[in-house]
Amino acid sequence: MTTYVYDFHQGNKDLKDLLGGKGANLAEMTNMGLPVPAGFTITTAACREYLAHGKEPDALRDEVGEHLHTLEQAMGRRLGQTDDPLLVSVRSGAKFSMPGMMDTVLNIGLSDASVPGLARQSGSPRFAWDSYRRLLAMFGRTVLGVDGELFDDAVDAAKKARGAGNDLDLDEADLRGLAEMFKTIIRDRTGRDFPQGPREQLDLAIRAVFDSWNGERARLYRRQERIPADLGTAVNVVAMVFGNLGMDSGTGVAFTRDPGNGDQGVYGDYLQNAQGEDVVAGIRNTLPLTALASIDPPAYDRLLSIMATLEQHYRDLCDIEFTIERNKLWMLQTRIGKRTAGAAFRIAVQLVDEGMITMDEALTRVTGAQLAQLMFPRFAAGGRADRIAQGMNASPGAAVGQAVFDSGRAVELAAAGIPVILIRRETNPDDLDGMIAAQGVLTSRGGKTSHAAVVARGMGKTCVCGAEEIDVDAHRRQAVAPGGVVVHEGDVISIDGSSGAVYLGEVPVVPSPVVEYFEGNLVADGSDPLVDAVHRIMTHADGAARLAVRANADTTEDAERARRFGAVGIGLCRTEHMFLGERRKLVERLILADGDEEADAALAALLPLQRGDFVAIFTAMDGLPVTVRLLDPPLHEFLPDLTELSVRVGVATATGEPVADGDAALLVAVRRLHEQNPMLGLRGVRLGLLIPGLVALQVRAIAEAAAICRGRGGDPRLEIMVPLVGAVQELEVVREQAEQVLEEVAVETGVDVQALIGTMIEVPRAALTAGQIAGAAQFFSFGTNDLTQMSWGFSRDDVESSFFSRYLDLGIFGVSPFESLDRDGVGRLVQLAVDEGRAARPEIKLGVCGEHGGDPDSVHFFHRLGLDYVSCSPFRLPVARLEAGRAAVLDR
Ligand code: ADP
Ligand code: MG
Ligand code: MG
């Protein structure tokens, strides 16, 4: 027979699946001998039964009855007993804490009949009525579904009538009046009376907790966080202790360290003569926890010693709720505390130094996402700008610019070199150009999956969204913030994408000390505890990692930064930029060439330029591998825009002017190369196979550059990568050409130039035929961006702004597949290619060069697949290094 109810003595902290987080930790504290009020937990299994069958399991009623009976015996009074009522709280608590679950109901068991008894027993009629009106409001709102504002408004009216500043000024008569009023509200709104039977109250509250599992907010949250929908929640029934019994009582929250910055020492808030949520509800100003030291020294000392015990026990920062009832301390909750990114790093190493955890564990206590947060520039403290509003921190960073209210204006000003912040009520695909042009984006509507948020994150652009206090009026080109502050077009504003704050005026931006450390401008010498912590943890991560981390870098500047940021090679050096700018003309000549001679001339002109580029990059990465990708993008990207050119030629023809030299021929070529679907067109290896001499040119430039570096005593390590291969035959042709050139250069220069030749796996067919392709490839590098696009059949540029936010809202995606690798789909292709590639060529080198190489979750996946390296943009390197280390430690 299943047991549906556990006494606190029967549980422990490892039973979160069954007892939920809150219940498991209450049991743990009980068994540690800490002063926890007696109580019991109804398991998630009972909830699952209820959800599956629409009613409580038969045995539940009796089991609750038995545990209630035990509780009553321990407390020496019965639930709701008229002359001395036992009261309880009913608290939801799932395995993961979740928004949208039912709020706690306190003081259950109290009724018209037992209020006088409670008044007599406590010696305080005011307290009894205060407890009753709280029960009525909480029960009315959360269990019976009455609009909570009705109760709040009534309290406000009562305070006003009495000229009272806060709830403490309300006397017994006021509170009694409120209780009567609340009962009327409940009757009016629900068509029934507030249930007076204590057990009925309890059962209704328990059922309401079960029901809240399927509340709309909870369901949405679970879909987004990928929390299974069928876990169910536990319900905790806890004997009440009272913080509202007078000034010798109170309630508070505490952290064992400062969760904001990681400083050692206690941190928290306390409120005298108060109950439950009053502390966080802001009904009165709280006192800092240290004030308790003088209000009630023995209780304070006891609290401190319990906090130390808890920290030692949980070996981490603890977050605590407590209540003091007439000088007696009670523990009501503890859990591992949430903390800021900076605090996470600092606390992890503090715990190591205090002997509580190992460095391996410290590594698991921080995340790449936290490190990424520490790497954004921030607003300097003490700036003089006014904070005018608060929104959601949708995409981190600190951005300053002139306010603009439409996309066109944003583009216009940005083109003139003026930084702008685009302010919109909400954005849509028409705002895309403006978002690209702006330093940052601010919206007054929409959450973290809104269009603005999704697109800004995709671009790595600072974004604050859902700043609802701001009234955006695009027609009048202004926004009105609370207090009537008006932001006109052209006014400078600053937005903080990490905190969601909006400022009028320019807030100075300072670089992140963590980036300064990676750049080598700051050393970990004890002067900045955060930098020290990051240094120690990164060093440990590098030692633990099995997956190497390379950088995607196309220029010497990027290559140099990559080295500073700890890259052990370049995993992707794109060669596109080597064909742009001034050199574009040469490419044009190559494409338009009329016969081999002209083409050869264009190639010959490009050769020394490319060679120079490679010499610079190989020099910067001396001794480390550099993977050079042969030209990838469609040809039309190197030619003038079709529409523009057509108009130019058309206008000239119509006005009878002579068409400019070459324009006519160019137009023919541009028309010929125009593609409906360039992403799936003539690009990558297809280009190399179509344009004679292109592969040879690039390989020659690479090989000659390597020979030059070798001649100077350097140690260049080349890997030549062929993009967009779908069939081994494509690769074979290119490889043959490449090997021939390598040989020629070796003969000409007398330097034996070695290079690995491999391919990107980015077309699904390549993954599916990886066994064959490995026959011609010495390495695979997974181009997960294209692999994602082609697996899903959508192009990132098009879909991210058009329907991704809808997909996220609907829960079809938990996260964009461009941010984090889609393991179920794209991941299977990668897995398949890894297995077949290795089977065909055991020594094959395997890496990833898509942006996923810098995404924490994806890094863990690649680690598990046993890849050799991931490659990501230089700024993501520290994140990837940290996660590679974490993946190795978590794997042990
Ligand atoms: P949440 O998960 O929202 O924090 P809790 O169940 O912890 O909800 O309860 C809300 C508030 O009520 C907290 O301040 C908690 O300490 C307080 N509380 C809960 N149970 C009791 C109890 N039995 N006696 C006194 N206060 C309680
Ligand atoms: Mg709580
Ligand atoms: Mg690609």
CATH class of the largest domain: Alpha Beta
Trace the largest sheet across and list its strands: 12-22-21-14-15-16-17-13
Instruction: Bin the strand percentage.
Output: 15-25%
Molecules bound to protein: adenosine-5'-diphosphate, magnesium ion
* Assigned CATH superfamily of the largest domain: Phosphoenolpyruvate-binding domains
Give the overall form.
elongated
CATH topology annotation of the largest domain: TIM Barrel
Main β-sheet description = 8 strands, mixed
How much is the radius of gyration in Å? 33 Å
Structural class: alpha/beta
Discrete helix count:
36
Mean pLDDT: 94
The percent range for helix content is 40-55%
Total of domains: 5
Low-confidence stretches: none
Report on this model:
The chain starts with a strand and ends with a helix. The protein is elongated. It has 892 residues and is an alpha/beta fold. A hairpin with a 4-residue loop joins strand 21 and strand 22. The chain folds into five domains: 5-239, 2-Layer Sandwich (Dna Ligase, domain 1), CATH 3.30.1490.20; 250-339, 2-Layer Sandwich (D-amino Acid Aminotransferase, Chain A, domain 1); 376-510, Phosphohistidine domain (Glucose Oxidase, domain 1, 3-Layer(bba) Sandwich); 545-634 and 691-794 and 822-891, Alpha-Beta Barrel (TIM Barrel), CATH 3.20.20; 635-674, no CATH class. The protein binds adenosine-5'-diphosphate (ADP) and magnesium ion (2 copies). Adenosine-5'-diphosphate binds next to strand 3, strand 5, strand 9 and strand 10. One magnesium ion binds next to loops. It catalyses: pyruvate + phosphate + ATP = phosphoenolpyruvate + AMP + diphosphate + H(+). InterPro entries: ATP_grasp_subdomain_1, PEP-util_enz_mobile_dom, PEP_util_AS, PEP_util_C, Phosphohistidine_dom_sf, PPDK_AMP/ATP-bd, Pyruvate_phosphate_dikinase, Pyrv/PenolPyrv_kinase-like_dom. The active site is at 451 (tele-phosphohistidine intermediate), 849 (proton donor). Residues 537-885 form the PEP-utilising enzyme C-terminal domain.
